[in-house]
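Figure 2 data, in text form.
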Amino acid sequence: MAEKKPNFLLIVADDLGFSDLGAFGGEIDTPHLDALALAGMRFTDFHSAPACSPTRAMLMTGADPHVAGIGSMLEVAAPGFAGAPGYEGHLNDRVVTVAELLRDAGYRTLLSGKWHLGDTAESRPHARGFERSFAFMPAGGSHYGLGEVNRFATVESVYEEDGRVVTELPADFYSSDYFADRLVDYLAEDGERPFFAYLPFTAPHWPLQAPEAEIAKYRGRYDDGPSVLRERRLARMTALGLCPADVVPHPVVTREPEWTAMSAEERAVSARCMEVYAAMVDRMDQAVGRVIAALRASGRLDDTLILFLSDNGAEGAVVEAMPIFGPIIADRIRQHYDNSLANIGTASSCVWYGARWAQAATAPSRLQKSFTAEGGIRVVGFASGAGVTQRGAIGRAFTTAMDVAPTLLDLAGVSHPGPAGGVAAMRGRSMAPWLGGMAESVHPADTETGWELFGRRAIRKGDWKALWLPVPAGSGGWQLYDLASDPGEIRDRSADKPTILAELVAAWERYVQEVGVAPGPVSVFELEGTEII
Protein backbone atom coordinates (compact mmCIF):
# COMPACT_ATOMS: atom_id res chain seq x y z
CA MET A 1 0.00 0.00 0.00
CA ALA A 2 1.33 3.43 -0.95
CA GLU A 3 2.31 5.68 1.91
CA LYS A 4 -0.30 8.32 2.66
CA LYS A 5 0.82 11.80 1.63
CA PRO A 6 0.51 14.64 4.15
CA ASN A 7 -1.79 17.59 3.51
CA PHE A 8 -0.51 21.15 3.70
CA LEU A 9 -2.20 24.36 4.86
CA LEU A 10 -0.10 27.51 4.41
CA ILE A 11 -1.63 30.58 6.10
CA VAL A 12 -0.17 34.04 5.52
CA ALA A 13 -1.21 37.22 7.31
CA ASP A 14 -0.57 40.54 5.58
CA ASP A 15 1.54 43.02 7.61
CA LEU A 16 0.95 41.25 10.95
CA GLY A 17 3.30 42.31 13.74
CA PHE A 18 5.57 39.84 15.53
CA SER A 19 3.80 40.13 18.90
CA ASP A 20 0.20 40.58 17.72
CA LEU A 21 -0.94 37.01 18.46
CA GLY A 22 -1.58 35.97 22.05
CA ALA A 23 0.88 33.09 21.73
CA PHE A 24 3.57 35.62 20.81
CA GLY A 25 2.86 38.15 23.56
CA GLY A 26 -0.13 40.07 22.29
CA GLU A 27 -3.38 41.11 23.95
CA ILE A 28 -5.57 40.60 20.85
CA ASP A 29 -8.02 37.69 21.07
CA THR A 30 -6.58 34.99 18.78
CA PRO A 31 -7.57 31.69 20.41
CA HIS A 32 -7.54 29.56 17.26
CA LEU A 33 -4.09 30.62 16.08
CA ASP A 34 -2.80 30.48 19.64
CA ALA A 35 -3.99 26.89 20.03
CA LEU A 36 -2.22 25.88 16.82
CA ALA A 37 0.98 27.72 17.76
CA LEU A 38 1.13 26.32 21.28
CA ALA A 39 0.52 22.78 20.01
CA GLY A 40 3.36 23.14 17.52
CA MET A 41 6.63 25.02 17.26
CA ARG A 42 6.82 28.81 17.46
CA PHE A 43 9.66 30.41 15.52
CA THR A 44 11.76 33.26 16.92
CA ASP A 45 14.25 33.62 14.05
CA PHE A 46 12.04 33.22 10.97
CA HIS A 47 12.64 35.74 8.19
CA SER A 48 10.74 37.11 5.22
CA ALA A 49 11.54 39.74 2.63
CA PRO A 50 11.00 43.35 3.74
CA ALA A 51 7.65 43.57 1.90
CA CYS A 52 4.79 41.44 0.68
CA SER A 53 5.18 40.36 -2.96
CA PRO A 54 8.90 39.47 -2.65
CA THR A 55 8.02 37.25 0.32
CA ARG A 56 5.23 35.58 -1.63
CA ALA A 57 7.72 34.82 -4.40
CA MET A 58 10.02 33.22 -1.80
CA LEU A 59 7.16 31.10 -0.46
CA MET A 60 5.96 29.89 -3.83
CA THR A 61 9.37 29.09 -5.34
CA GLY A 62 11.97 28.61 -2.60
CA ALA A 63 14.09 31.07 -4.60
CA ASP A 64 15.31 34.59 -4.01
CA PRO A 65 12.75 37.16 -5.22
CA HIS A 66 15.35 38.78 -7.49
CA VAL A 67 15.57 35.47 -9.33
CA ALA A 68 11.83 34.82 -9.33
CA GLY A 69 10.87 38.16 -10.94
CA ILE A 70 9.90 40.20 -7.85
CA GLY A 71 13.20 41.99 -7.23
CA SER A 72 11.18 45.05 -6.28
CA MET A 73 7.60 46.17 -5.88
CA LEU A 74 6.90 47.82 -9.19
CA GLU A 75 3.89 49.66 -7.74
CA VAL A 76 6.47 52.17 -6.52
CA ALA A 77 8.87 51.95 -9.44
CA ALA A 78 11.10 54.93 -10.10
CA PRO A 79 10.09 57.02 -13.13
CA GLY A 80 11.57 55.51 -16.27
CA PHE A 81 12.42 52.16 -14.75
CA ALA A 82 11.67 49.23 -17.06
CA GLY A 83 11.61 45.74 -15.59
CA ALA A 84 15.09 44.20 -15.90
CA PRO A 85 15.54 40.41 -15.61
CA GLY A 86 14.40 39.51 -12.13
CA TYR A 87 12.35 42.70 -11.94
CA GLU A 88 9.50 41.71 -14.25
CA GLY A 89 6.94 42.38 -11.51
CA HIS A 90 5.50 38.87 -11.79
CA LEU A 91 6.70 35.30 -11.39
CA ASN A 92 8.94 34.59 -14.36
CA ASP A 93 9.78 31.40 -16.23
CA ARG A 94 13.11 30.98 -14.43
CA VAL A 95 11.26 29.43 -11.48
CA VAL A 96 8.73 26.68 -10.87
CA THR A 97 6.18 27.02 -8.06
CA VAL A 98 5.54 24.54 -5.28
CA ALA A 99 1.92 24.46 -6.45
CA GLU A 100 2.97 23.34 -9.93
CA LEU A 101 5.19 20.59 -8.55
CA LEU A 102 2.64 19.33 -6.02
CA ARG A 103 -0.17 19.43 -8.62
CA ASP A 104 1.92 17.33 -10.97
CA ALA A 105 2.51 14.89 -8.11
CA GLY A 106 -1.22 14.37 -7.61
CA TYR A 107 -2.05 17.02 -5.02
CA ARG A 108 -5.14 19.20 -5.13
CA THR A 109 -3.80 22.76 -5.13
CA LEU A 110 -6.10 25.40 -3.69
CA LEU A 111 -5.75 29.15 -3.18
CA SER A 112 -8.12 31.57 -1.51
CA GLY A 113 -6.79 35.04 -0.77
CA LYS A 114 -4.17 37.53 -1.91
CA TRP A 115 -1.97 36.66 -4.90
CA HIS A 116 0.14 39.77 -5.72
CA LEU A 117 2.51 37.79 -7.92
CA GLY A 118 1.43 39.06 -11.31
CA ASP A 119 -1.60 39.44 -13.51
CA THR A 120 -0.19 38.42 -16.87
CA ALA A 121 -1.68 35.36 -18.54
CA GLU A 122 1.39 33.33 -17.55
CA SER A 123 1.57 34.50 -13.92
CA ARG A 124 -2.00 34.19 -12.65
CA PRO A 125 -2.70 31.52 -10.01
CA HIS A 126 -4.32 29.05 -12.41
CA ALA A 127 -1.28 29.33 -14.70
CA ARG A 128 1.16 28.76 -11.83
CA GLY A 129 -0.25 25.53 -10.46
CA PHE A 130 -3.51 26.15 -8.61
CA GLU A 131 -6.44 23.95 -9.66
CA ARG A 132 -8.92 26.12 -7.79
CA SER A 133 -8.33 29.71 -6.83
CA PHE A 134 -10.25 32.69 -5.55
CA ALA A 135 -7.63 35.40 -5.74
CA PHE A 136 -7.33 39.03 -4.77
CA MET A 137 -4.84 40.11 -7.39
CA PRO A 138 -3.18 43.43 -6.36
CA ALA A 139 -1.27 44.66 -3.32
CA GLY A 140 -4.12 45.96 -1.20
CA GLY A 141 -7.68 47.18 -1.29
CA SER A 142 -11.00 47.48 0.46
CA HIS A 143 -11.84 44.59 2.76
CA TYR A 144 -15.49 45.04 1.86
CA GLY A 145 -15.37 43.90 -1.74
CA LEU A 146 -15.17 45.76 -5.00
CA GLY A 147 -14.43 49.12 -3.42
CA GLU A 148 -12.20 51.86 -4.70
CA VAL A 149 -9.11 51.46 -2.51
CA ASN A 150 -6.37 49.53 -4.27
CA ARG A 151 -2.61 49.76 -3.77
CA PHE A 152 -1.59 53.40 -3.47
CA ALA A 153 -4.53 55.00 -5.22
CA THR A 154 -8.30 54.82 -5.23
CA VAL A 155 -8.99 52.43 -8.07
CA GLU A 156 -11.06 49.28 -8.28
CA SER A 157 -10.08 46.10 -6.48
CA VAL A 158 -9.69 43.01 -8.65
CA TYR A 159 -10.77 39.48 -7.77
CA GLU A 160 -10.48 36.43 -9.99
CA GLU A 161 -11.76 32.88 -9.62
CA ASP A 162 -9.99 30.21 -11.63
CA GLY A 163 -8.65 32.89 -13.98
CA ARG A 164 -11.94 34.69 -14.57
CA VAL A 165 -12.63 38.19 -13.25
CA VAL A 166 -15.25 38.28 -10.51
CA THR A 167 -17.77 41.06 -11.10
CA GLU A 168 -20.13 40.40 -8.19
CA LEU A 169 -19.52 39.53 -4.55
CA PRO A 170 -21.97 38.78 -1.74
CA ALA A 171 -23.55 41.77 -0.03
CA ASP A 172 -22.00 40.72 3.29
CA PHE A 173 -18.51 40.23 1.82
CA TYR A 174 -15.61 40.80 4.21
CA SER A 175 -12.20 39.65 3.04
CA SER A 176 -11.12 37.35 5.88
CA ASP A 177 -14.54 35.73 6.17
CA TYR A 178 -14.91 35.08 2.47
CA PHE A 179 -11.37 33.81 1.88
CA ALA A 180 -11.80 31.22 4.64
CA ASP A 181 -15.29 30.19 3.57
CA ARG A 182 -14.26 29.82 -0.08
CA LEU A 183 -11.33 27.63 0.94
CA VAL A 184 -13.67 25.45 2.99
CA ASP A 185 -15.82 25.06 -0.13
CA TYR A 186 -12.81 24.00 -2.19
CA LEU A 187 -11.67 21.51 0.46
CA ALA A 188 -15.12 19.88 0.44
CA GLU A 189 -15.03 19.23 -3.32
CA ASP A 190 -12.63 16.28 -3.07
CA GLY A 191 -11.74 14.41 0.08
CA GLU A 192 -9.67 11.72 -1.58
CA ARG A 193 -6.51 13.36 -2.89
CA PRO A 194 -4.00 15.07 -0.61
CA PHE A 195 -4.17 18.87 -0.74
CA PHE A 196 -1.97 21.92 -0.66
CA ALA A 197 -4.17 24.78 0.52
CA TYR A 198 -2.83 28.35 0.46
CA LEU A 199 -4.77 30.88 2.57
CA PRO A 200 -3.12 34.31 2.25
CA PHE A 201 -5.29 36.90 4.00
CA THR A 202 -5.27 40.59 3.12
CA ALA A 203 -5.77 41.38 6.82
CA PRO A 204 -4.50 43.30 8.64
CA HIS A 205 -3.10 45.32 5.69
CA TRP A 206 -4.47 48.85 5.46
CA PRO A 207 -7.06 50.27 4.91
CA LEU A 208 -7.93 49.33 8.47
CA GLN A 209 -11.53 48.10 8.26
CA ALA A 210 -13.44 45.64 10.42
CA PRO A 211 -16.97 44.75 11.49
CA GLU A 212 -18.28 46.92 14.30
CA ALA A 213 -18.86 43.96 16.63
CA GLU A 214 -15.13 43.24 16.69
CA ILE A 215 -14.11 46.89 16.94
CA ALA A 216 -16.35 47.32 19.97
CA LYS A 217 -14.43 44.59 21.82
CA TYR A 218 -11.34 46.79 21.83
CA ARG A 219 -12.85 50.15 22.76
CA GLY A 220 -10.47 51.88 25.16
CA ARG A 221 -7.92 49.06 25.03
CA TYR A 222 -5.23 51.31 23.54
CA ASP A 223 -5.92 54.62 25.22
CA ASP A 224 -2.54 54.47 26.99
CA GLY A 225 -0.72 54.76 23.66
CA PRO A 226 1.86 52.73 21.75
CA SER A 227 4.76 53.13 24.21
CA VAL A 228 2.79 51.47 26.99
CA LEU A 229 1.69 48.73 24.61
CA ARG A 230 5.31 48.17 23.59
CA GLU A 231 6.39 47.72 27.20
CA ARG A 232 3.53 45.31 27.94
CA ARG A 233 4.24 43.23 24.85
CA LEU A 234 7.96 42.98 25.64
CA ALA A 235 7.21 41.89 29.21
CA ARG A 236 4.80 39.24 27.98
CA MET A 237 7.25 37.97 25.34
CA THR A 238 9.91 37.64 28.02
CA ALA A 239 7.52 35.70 30.25
CA LEU A 240 6.72 33.35 27.36
CA GLY A 241 10.41 32.69 26.67
CA LEU A 242 10.28 34.38 23.26
CA CYS A 243 12.60 37.21 24.22
CA PRO A 244 15.70 37.31 26.47
CA ALA A 245 15.06 38.88 29.86
CA ASP A 246 18.00 41.24 29.37
CA VAL A 247 17.10 42.30 25.84
CA VAL A 248 17.62 45.95 24.94
CA PRO A 249 14.95 46.93 22.40
CA HIS A 250 15.83 49.32 19.64
CA PRO A 251 14.41 52.81 20.23
CA VAL A 252 11.39 53.72 18.12
CA VAL A 253 12.47 55.46 14.91
CA THR A 254 9.88 57.87 13.53
CA ARG A 255 9.04 61.50 12.91
CA GLU A 256 5.57 60.98 14.36
CA PRO A 257 4.93 62.94 17.58
CA GLU A 258 5.09 61.30 20.99
CA TRP A 259 1.73 60.28 22.48
CA THR A 260 2.04 62.97 25.15
CA ALA A 261 2.63 65.64 22.49
CA MET A 262 -0.58 64.82 20.63
CA SER A 263 -3.89 66.55 21.21
CA ALA A 264 -6.74 64.62 22.81
CA GLU A 265 -8.43 64.41 19.42
CA GLU A 266 -5.28 63.08 17.74
CA ARG A 267 -4.86 60.45 20.45
CA ALA A 268 -8.48 59.37 20.09
CA VAL A 269 -8.09 58.89 16.33
CA SER A 270 -4.81 57.03 16.72
CA ALA A 271 -6.21 54.73 19.41
CA ARG A 272 -9.27 54.03 17.25
CA CYS A 273 -7.04 53.01 14.36
CA MET A 274 -5.30 50.51 16.64
CA GLU A 275 -8.68 49.25 17.87
CA VAL A 276 -9.70 48.55 14.28
CA TYR A 277 -6.38 46.86 13.59
CA ALA A 278 -6.90 44.57 16.57
CA ALA A 279 -10.42 43.82 15.36
CA MET A 280 -9.04 42.79 11.96
CA VAL A 281 -6.60 40.35 13.58
CA ASP A 282 -9.39 39.02 15.79
CA ARG A 283 -11.68 38.44 12.79
CA MET A 284 -8.89 36.76 10.84
CA ASP A 285 -8.40 34.36 13.76
CA GLN A 286 -12.09 33.49 13.68
CA ALA A 287 -11.80 32.75 9.96
CA VAL A 288 -8.85 30.42 10.59
CA GLY A 289 -10.96 28.69 13.23
CA ARG A 290 -13.62 27.83 10.65
CA VAL A 291 -11.05 26.27 8.32
CA ILE A 292 -9.59 24.21 11.17
CA ALA A 293 -13.08 23.11 12.22
CA ALA A 294 -13.83 21.96 8.66
CA LEU A 295 -10.60 19.95 8.52
CA ARG A 296 -11.35 18.37 11.89
CA ALA A 297 -14.90 17.47 10.84
CA SER A 298 -13.61 15.83 7.65
CA GLY A 299 -11.03 13.79 9.54
CA ARG A 300 -8.10 15.41 7.73
CA LEU A 301 -6.71 17.70 10.41
CA ASP A 302 -4.34 15.15 11.94
CA ASP A 303 -2.77 14.51 8.52
CA THR A 304 -2.18 18.21 7.81
CA LEU A 305 0.94 20.28 8.35
CA ILE A 306 -0.04 23.87 9.10
CA LEU A 307 2.45 26.68 8.53
CA PHE A 308 1.58 30.24 9.55
CA LEU A 309 3.55 33.44 9.02
CA SER A 310 3.36 37.12 8.29
CA ASP A 311 4.67 38.31 4.93
CA ASN A 312 6.82 41.04 6.53
CA GLY A 313 7.10 43.14 9.66
CA ALA A 314 4.30 45.42 10.81
CA GLU A 315 3.40 48.25 8.42
CA GLY A 316 4.38 51.59 9.92
CA ALA A 317 4.36 53.82 6.84
CA VAL A 318 2.55 57.12 6.82
CA VAL A 319 1.19 56.43 3.38
CA GLU A 320 0.20 59.99 2.53
CA ALA A 321 3.86 61.00 3.03
CA MET A 322 5.16 58.54 0.43
CA PRO A 323 7.34 60.02 -2.29
CA ILE A 324 5.49 61.05 -5.47
CA PHE A 325 2.30 59.13 -4.62
CA GLY A 326 1.61 60.56 -1.17
CA PRO A 327 -0.02 63.87 -2.14
CA ILE A 328 -2.20 62.08 -4.71
CA ILE A 329 -3.34 59.56 -2.11
CA ALA A 330 -4.08 62.25 0.46
CA ASP A 331 -6.13 64.24 -2.04
CA ARG A 332 -8.16 61.24 -3.17
CA ILE A 333 -8.84 60.16 0.40
CA ARG A 334 -10.15 63.63 1.22
CA GLN A 335 -12.47 63.40 -1.80
CA HIS A 336 -13.78 59.87 -1.35
CA TYR A 337 -13.54 58.80 2.30
CA ASP A 338 -14.89 59.78 5.70
CA ASN A 339 -12.14 59.37 8.29
CA SER A 340 -14.00 61.02 11.13
CA LEU A 341 -13.56 59.29 14.49
CA ALA A 342 -17.02 57.72 14.48
CA ASN A 343 -16.57 56.34 10.96
CA ILE A 344 -13.06 54.87 11.23
CA GLY A 345 -13.11 51.17 10.43
CA THR A 346 -16.11 51.21 8.12
CA ALA A 347 -16.05 50.51 4.37
CA SER A 348 -16.09 54.25 3.67
CA SER A 349 -12.93 54.95 5.71
CA CYS A 350 -9.30 54.60 4.67
CA VAL A 351 -6.75 54.77 7.50
CA TRP A 352 -3.52 53.18 8.75
CA TYR A 353 -1.95 53.25 12.21
CA GLY A 354 1.61 54.53 11.79
CA ALA A 355 5.11 53.73 12.96
CA ARG A 356 4.68 53.90 16.73
CA TRP A 357 2.02 51.20 16.83
CA ALA A 358 3.96 49.16 14.26
CA GLN A 359 7.17 49.30 16.28
CA ALA A 360 5.27 48.29 19.39
CA ALA A 361 4.63 45.05 17.49
CA THR A 362 8.13 44.59 16.03
CA ALA A 363 9.98 45.22 19.32
CA PRO A 364 12.65 44.47 20.35
CA SER A 365 13.64 44.60 16.70
CA ARG A 366 14.63 47.70 14.76
CA LEU A 367 12.18 49.48 12.45
CA GLN A 368 9.31 47.91 10.48
CA LYS A 369 8.06 46.76 7.08
CA SER A 370 10.07 47.74 3.98
CA PHE A 371 13.37 47.87 5.91
CA THR A 372 16.07 45.20 5.96
CA ALA A 373 16.52 45.77 9.68
CA GLU A 374 15.13 42.94 11.81
CA GLY A 375 11.81 44.73 12.39
CA GLY A 376 11.11 44.48 8.68
CA ILE A 377 12.21 40.89 8.07
CA ARG A 378 11.97 38.92 11.36
CA VAL A 379 8.35 37.83 11.41
CA VAL A 380 5.88 35.84 13.43
CA GLY A 381 5.66 32.22 12.33
CA PHE A 382 4.89 28.72 13.55
CA ALA A 383 4.40 25.14 12.38
CA SER A 384 1.79 22.77 13.77
CA GLY A 385 0.31 19.38 13.01
CA ALA A 386 1.63 16.55 10.87
CA GLY A 387 5.41 16.33 10.80
CA VAL A 388 5.91 18.52 13.88
CA THR A 389 7.12 16.45 16.83
CA GLN A 390 8.55 19.41 18.72
CA ARG A 391 5.14 20.31 20.13
CA GLY A 392 4.98 23.22 22.52
CA ALA A 393 8.55 24.10 21.61
CA ILE A 394 10.15 27.41 20.73
CA GLY A 395 12.27 27.04 17.62
CA ARG A 396 15.26 29.38 17.66
CA ALA A 397 16.99 28.22 14.47
CA PHE A 398 17.44 30.68 11.61
CA THR A 399 14.87 30.05 8.87
CA THR A 400 13.38 32.00 5.98
CA ALA A 401 10.32 32.04 3.74
CA MET A 402 12.46 30.33 1.10
CA ASP A 403 12.48 27.24 3.33
CA VAL A 404 8.73 26.68 3.03
CA ALA A 405 8.65 25.24 -0.50
CA PRO A 406 11.56 22.82 0.13
CA THR A 407 9.83 21.66 3.32
CA LEU A 408 6.55 20.85 1.55
CA LEU A 409 8.31 19.10 -1.31
CA ASP A 410 10.45 17.08 1.11
CA LEU A 411 7.46 15.89 3.12
CA ALA A 412 5.51 15.11 -0.06
CA GLY A 413 8.42 13.14 -1.51
CA VAL A 414 8.58 15.41 -4.56
CA SER A 415 11.87 16.41 -6.18
CA HIS A 416 12.64 19.90 -7.43
CA PRO A 417 13.90 19.86 -11.05
CA GLY A 418 16.60 22.53 -10.52
CA PRO A 419 18.93 23.69 -13.29
CA ALA A 420 18.90 20.26 -14.92
CA GLY A 421 15.17 20.77 -15.41
CA GLY A 422 15.58 24.25 -16.82
CA VAL A 423 14.71 26.27 -13.71
CA ALA A 424 16.63 28.01 -10.94
CA ALA A 425 17.59 25.99 -7.89
CA MET A 426 15.93 26.72 -4.58
CA ARG A 427 18.01 28.72 -2.10
CA GLY A 428 15.87 27.49 0.79
CA ARG A 429 16.31 24.23 2.70
CA SER A 430 13.78 21.81 4.11
CA MET A 431 12.72 22.43 7.70
CA ALA A 432 11.27 18.91 7.96
CA PRO A 433 14.19 17.33 9.90
CA TRP A 434 14.18 20.26 12.35
CA LEU A 435 10.41 20.18 12.82
CA GLY A 436 10.58 16.43 13.31
CA GLY A 437 13.24 16.65 16.03
CA MET A 438 15.99 15.10 13.92
CA ALA A 439 18.11 18.24 13.48
CA GLU A 440 19.03 21.22 15.63
CA SER A 441 19.17 23.67 12.73
CA VAL A 442 17.93 24.18 9.19
CA HIS A 443 20.90 25.94 7.62
CA PRO A 444 24.63 25.26 8.03
CA ALA A 445 26.44 27.82 10.17
CA ASP A 446 28.28 29.21 7.13
CA THR A 447 25.10 29.94 5.13
CA GLU A 448 25.07 33.44 3.65
CA THR A 449 21.62 35.01 3.28
CA GLY A 450 21.03 38.38 1.64
CA TRP A 451 18.15 40.84 1.45
CA GLU A 452 17.62 43.87 -0.77
CA LEU A 453 14.58 46.05 -1.38
CA PHE A 454 14.33 49.73 -2.27
CA GLY A 455 18.12 49.95 -2.09
CA ARG A 456 18.12 48.82 1.54
CA ARG A 457 20.52 45.93 2.07
CA ALA A 458 21.48 43.24 4.54
CA ILE A 459 23.60 40.10 4.59
CA ARG A 460 23.74 37.51 7.37
CA LYS A 461 26.08 34.66 8.22
CA GLY A 462 25.49 32.83 11.48
CA ASP A 463 24.62 35.41 14.13
CA TRP A 464 26.49 38.22 12.38
CA LYS A 465 24.55 40.61 10.19
CA ALA A 466 25.74 43.54 8.09
CA LEU A 467 23.10 46.19 7.45
CA TRP A 468 23.10 49.09 5.00
CA LEU A 469 20.35 51.69 5.32
CA PRO A 470 20.35 55.22 3.94
CA VAL A 471 20.13 58.28 6.14
CA PRO A 472 18.09 58.94 8.26
CA ALA A 473 17.05 55.33 8.95
CA GLY A 474 20.71 54.26 8.97
CA SER A 475 24.19 55.63 8.62
CA GLY A 476 24.42 55.48 4.83
CA GLY A 477 27.19 52.89 5.24
CA TRP A 478 27.58 49.30 6.38
CA GLN A 479 26.88 48.59 10.04
CA LEU A 480 27.62 45.29 11.81
CA TYR A 481 25.56 43.56 14.48
CA ASP A 482 25.86 40.41 16.57
CA LEU A 483 22.23 39.30 16.71
CA ALA A 484 22.95 36.70 19.40
CA SER A 485 23.76 39.40 21.96
CA ASP A 486 22.09 42.37 20.29
CA PRO A 487 18.76 41.41 18.65
CA GLY A 488 17.72 45.07 18.67
CA GLU A 489 20.58 46.02 16.31
CA ILE A 490 21.77 48.80 18.57
CA ARG A 491 25.53 48.26 19.00
CA ASP A 492 27.38 48.72 15.72
CA ARG A 493 30.47 46.47 15.80
CA SER A 494 31.96 47.55 12.48
CA ALA A 495 34.78 49.47 14.18
CA ASP A 496 35.97 46.68 16.49
CA LYS A 497 35.21 43.75 14.14
CA PRO A 498 36.47 45.04 10.76
CA THR A 499 37.49 41.57 9.56
CA ILE A 500 33.99 40.15 10.09
CA LEU A 501 32.46 43.18 8.38
CA ALA A 502 34.79 42.76 5.41
CA GLU A 503 33.80 39.09 5.13
CA LEU A 504 30.12 40.00 5.13
CA VAL A 505 30.54 42.77 2.59
CA ALA A 506 32.31 40.29 0.34
CA ALA A 507 29.39 37.90 0.90
CA TRP A 508 27.05 40.72 -0.10
CA GLU A 509 28.89 41.18 -3.38
CA ARG A 510 28.57 37.46 -4.06
CA TYR A 511 24.85 37.68 -3.33
CA VAL A 512 24.43 40.58 -5.77
CA GLN A 513 26.11 38.58 -8.52
CA GLU A 514 24.23 35.37 -7.76
CA VAL A 515 20.71 36.78 -7.74
CA GLY A 516 21.11 39.82 -10.01
CA VAL A 517 20.42 42.85 -7.81
CA ALA A 518 19.92 45.86 -10.09
CA PRO A 519 22.74 48.41 -9.76
CA GLY A 520 20.65 51.58 -10.16
CA PRO A 521 17.54 53.05 -8.55
CA VAL A 522 14.50 50.83 -9.05
CA SER A 523 11.96 52.48 -6.75
CA VAL A 524 11.09 55.98 -5.65
CA PHE A 525 12.52 55.09 -2.22
CA GLU A 526 15.99 54.81 -3.76
CA LEU A 527 15.92 58.33 -5.19
CA GLU A 528 17.85 60.94 -3.25
CA GLY A 529 15.89 62.77 -0.61
CA THR A 530 12.89 60.44 -0.50
CA GLU A 531 13.65 58.39 2.61
CA ILE A 532 10.55 58.33 4.79
CA ILE A 533 10.62 57.34 8.46
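Caption note: Residues 456 and 469 are 5 Å apart (CA to CA).
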